[in-house]
Write a structure and sequence with these properties.
About 30% of the residues lie in helices and about 25% in strands. It has about 350 residues and is α/β, with parallel strands linked by helices.
């Protein structure tokens, strides 16, 4: 099969390798579409595995069952599947408390082999887990693949309770930021403000429910947020970007007793300067968000396949696996928002 192997930071080579093996209760998935995520970009352009190469990343995966093990009974050849990338044990303390995203025994497909390949093995622990869903025949793979990025966005807003009448600031107008804008409006937010350094992305964000845009390289984003909120600041500020500087600024955009969310991961080893006195004296709730529990995974999937969120609006380009590194550069530069990869294109 064809696969994109990472040999080191910025060293991604598309090669022919054997198809992965799977156990008797597992299956072989023909990868139809895989989304390129900001975390993929960070992993593929830094020494993410500390020399443990080559490796295949890719976690936003949808595909068709190509083969099944001789003891597999849940799925059949030809089934169209959305495979969420994390599989919790459902037995540990975190899982039993409803926090399966923090599972002590969490397994991730791309720790072994991810979806930037023509085939991906789904072992028995994945097949028998809670996070695989059949895609309705009428729903294109290019739509269903947005279920994974939406799951984290849905879980975040579910957990901090974005609700009717609030002002929400989103820092970062990438795929996650624009999904946040759309969902915040669906949940009833009165005003959505987008902060970003790229004018093209700011302009595009207006198509996703954003009411006001702020280019933080041209104006003071803190003062502008205060101006738009009558000096108060936002009810909720979601920092959805990999910038420590942006995270530092986000603190001062929150109103007293508001909520500050750190969602985007920053490069390994980087630390953010946080004014804890400001958090303390303004009674600001601070929340680090990662992942989704099993119910939130399903809710996000339902929103995508039902069309409640129009997935195709978020897709800038569809590119072949051979052009994976070009896709990375396109997203990093801001010339593209969300890029999908088709391994068979």
């Amino acid at each position: 099969m064809k696969a994109a192997l990472m040999y080191g930071p910025n060293d991604v080579r598309v090669e022919e390798i054997p198809s992965p093996e799977y156990d008797s209760e597992g299956l072989l998935l023909k990868v139809e579409v895989v989304g390129l995520c900001g975390s993929d970009i960070r992993n593929l352009t830094t020494d993410s595995r500390k020399g443990d190469y080559p490796h295949i990343y890719g976690h936003e995966v949808v595909g068709t069952v190509a083969e099944i093990g001789d003891k597999e009974t849940r799925f059949n050849v030809g089934d169209r599947l959305y495979v969420y990338p994390a599989v919790p044990c459902l037995k540990c303390e975190y899982c039993r408390a409803g926090n399966s995203h923090s599972c002590e025994n969490l397994r991730l497909y791309d720790q072994t082999q991810g979806g930037f390949a023509q085939y991906m093995a789904v072992p028995s622990w994945g097949v028998n887990g809670p996070n695989i869903y059949r895609i309705p025949d009428e729903v294109p793979f290019e739509t269903a693949v947005l279920s994974e990025p939406l799951s984290s966005v849905y879980a975040c807003q579910d957990n901090v309770n974005v609700r009717l009448g609030q002002t929400v600031v989103i820092v970062g107008a990438g795929p996650i930021g624009t999904l946040h804008a759309t969902l915040a409006k669906i949940r009833g937010a009165d005003q959505v403000i987008m902060v970003e350094i790229n004018d093209q992305r700011l302009e595009e964000s207006l198509n996703f429910g954003v009411d006001h845009t702020i280019n933080s390289t041209k104006v003071d984003p803190i003062e502008e947020v205060k101006r738009l909120t009558h000096g108060q600041g936002a009810d909720i500020v979601i920092s959805a970007n990999p910038s420590t500087q942006a995270q530092t600024q986000a603190v001062y955009m929150v109103r007293s007793n508001g909520t500050l969310v750190f969602l985007g991961g920053v490069p390994r080893g980087k630390l953010t300067d946080i004014d804890t006195n400001y958090l303390h004296y303004h009674s600001i709730w601070t929340y680090g968000h990662y992942g989704s529990n099993t119910i939130q995974v399903k809710k996000a999937f339902d929103m995508i396949v039902s069309g409640r969120i129009e997935a195709k609006k978020f897709v800038s380009k569809i590119m072949p696996l051979d052009n994976l590194f070009d896709a990375i550069l396109s997203m990093k530069s801001g010339k593209a928002n969300k890029v999908l990869i088709k391994p068979w294109m």
